[in-house]
Amino acid sequence: MTATSAPARAARDASVPPAAPPGRRRRLLPFSGWHLALAPLALLFAVPLLWLLLSSVMSDGEINRFPPALWPSHVDLSGYRYVLGNAMFPRWFANSLIVSLVAVASNLVFGALGGYAFARMRFAGSRVLLVTMLATMAIPFQLTMIPTFLVMKRLGLIDSLGALIVPSLVTPFAVFLLRQFFLSLPRELEEAAWIDGCSRLRVLWSVVLPLSRPALSTVAVLTFLGTWNDLTWPLIAINHDVHYTLQLGLTTFQGQHHTKWSAVMAGNVITVLPVLLAFLAAQKSFIQSITSSGLKG
Amino acid sequence: MPRLPAPLTLPPDAPTDAEVRRARRRRRRSESATAWAFVTPSVLVILGLGIMPVVWSLLLSFQADDLVTPSRWVGLQNYHALTKDPNFRQAVHNTLLYTALYVPLSMVFGLLLALALNRRIRLVGLYRTLIFVPFVISATAQGVLFSFILDPEFGAANSVLHALHLPAQGFLTDPGQALYVLVAISLWSGTGFCVVIYLAALQDVPPSLIEAARLDGAGRRHLLWHVVLPTLTPVNVFLVVWQVIESLQVFDLVYVTTKGGPLGSTTVIVYFIWEMAFQNFTAGYGAAAAYVLAVALLVIAAGTRVLRRRGPARLEGATR
């Protein structure tokens, strides 16, 4: 392509009056004009988060006067102290962490096992099961939440972390995504290990999984994001504040401490920080996860 | 597409075809048992908390159930009551209005931003990050943050308006504004998703296509309208379906900010379902409303699938 286009471009440039240097327009600005549009827009997206961070280190006096201070006069950590001291936040943080990490681990394990069986193994009923599972991906949560509540109640799990963990143990999404990825791997590698007498589990563990890092991280990222950020199900399944997750705790806390905005914002920062840090640390694979799961299923 | 792995070490003498076949046959017998062991956990969870509840929900929707005492069969009464319930009608109206605003706006903004961001200039990575970051933040955190910013008395938004000599607004406390404010908050967090998807698609536009059009003398505008945008059709279809499904299911943000108020102006369908089932303890009635929503979602998904199959450009893979 470049070979054919280079002479063509040269020919076109040759017809341009020699005053303008080839391939370059006269510039009014020392930088691309796009910055004039993009910088304010990007700022517009950033300002609410900046305000969140700033107000979490303001004193309530600064927040509640009118008009409120736009910049804290000094870093006031009383909001954080309040949240970490007399409230349940550390407990909620731990609950959220437990639920999310268990969900990630079990989705990886069960997703890989199920996905591998569907991708590579022949067994009675595999087609029916796969189609059924695909169909469940299209079921909206609202349709299942009432019976799921009743099931959890019968299992005696309502109002415990178990009620949050069990429904998120494995999603059809994890199984299906990993199946698709395993199908794209060359079979020969597995067959070689297979001939050597490795069991299926061994092949999966030492041949397939090491090659599947991108898909595994997609499952991990999206599972973590989904469980950490969920509010609907904890709201339904949990009654007592000792079992709250951070999201549920934060909204209840806001309702109870309506005027203590610095503490509410400090709690909000704590709620947001783990996903924010995870995102900033692994932005590229994060975005890849979202686009690939969105566009390629 | 995943990168193909670098070749691993193969056994020195490759096995013959016959050997491979014999090994396969030997394994097939124990294979089925192993396979079932592999899929059983997924099958249990997915059938138990996917398929079974769908059936249960259907049965519930024909019953009066308060989640505690045994339920009573009432036939189609729940559905009948739904058609007459002004609250449900308002919830449907609010949800459709929210969807009709959020979906096109998020896609148009997303596309414009993606087109602007799809170039190699300094800081573009920072811009992309800033625009996308709100997407990873939970609806709860967004709701709490914006309740604070938009607080009519102490909020920063009204003091900015004050500084500009504009009248103070009620925002989420004003029945005439609350739903639009919710759309705006969702746009703040959801546009980044459209941007990321569009950016990925723009980068997939084959350079040869653009090169060819350029050689044919296409100008910038022509290139955009007749070459770039048509290749985005499958992505547009995907985003419409995805965003519609997301907005018909909006709940968390509403719960955190307005609880359906003021005066029911932000009661959306899922909020209605939740309220009926878990606040008023009329689970059968809630299940009926949930079925109405689910059928609507199914029709949308099936409809676009038919459309997509007829269309020339097809999106690869399952996008629901």
Automatic annotation (TrEMBL), chain A:
Pfam families, alphabetized: BPD_transp_1
User: What are the top taxonomic ranks of the organism?
Assistant: Bacteria, Bacillati, Actinomycetota, Actinomycetes, Kitasatosporales
Please state the protein's primary subcellular location: membrane
Any one of the GO CC terms: plasma membrane
Its GO biological process annotations read: transmembrane transport
Signal peptide start-end: none
According to its UniProt entry, this protein's organism is Actinacidiphila yanglinensis
Q: Where in the cell is it found?
A: Cell membrane
Task: Quote the CDD domains the UniProt record gives.
Answer: TM_PBP2
User: Where are the annotated segments for Disordered?
Assistant: 1-22
Positions of transmembrane segments: 34-54, 92-116, 128-149, 161-182, 203-225, 261-282
From the Swiss-Prot or TrEMBL record, give the protein name: Carbohydrate ABC transporter membrane protein 2, CUT1 family
Q: Which UniProt keywords apply?
A: Cell membrane, Membrane, Transmembrane, Transmembrane helix, Transport
Q: Where is the composition biased (Low complexity)?
A: 1-17
Q: Where is the ABC transmembrane type-1 domain?
A: 93-282
Could you say which protein family the record assigns here? Belongs to the binding-protein-dependent transport system permease family.
Q: Which PANTHER family does the UniProt record give?
A: ABC TRANSPORTER PERMEASE PROTEIN MG189-RELATED, ABC TRANSPORTER PERMEASE PROTEIN MG189-RELATED-RELATED
Indicate whether Cell membrane appears among the record's keywords: yes
The way it spans or sits in the membrane comes to: Multi-pass membrane protein
Automatic annotation (TrEMBL), chain B:
Q: Where are the transmembrane segments?
A: 34-59, 96-117, 129-150, 178-202, 223-245, 283-304
* Compartments where located: Cell membrane
Identify the stretch(es) annotated as Disordered: 1-25
Q: Give a GO cellular-component term.
A: plasma membrane
Matches recorded under SUPFAM superfamilies? MetI-like
Keyword entries, A-Z: Cell membrane, Membrane, Transmembrane, Transmembrane helix, Transport
| A Pfam family | BPD_transp_1
Concerning Gene3D superfamilies, the annotation shows: MetI-like
Protein's recorded name:
Carbohydrate ABC transporter membrane protein 1, CUT1 family
Naturally occurring in which organism (per UniProt)? Actinacidiphila yanglinensis
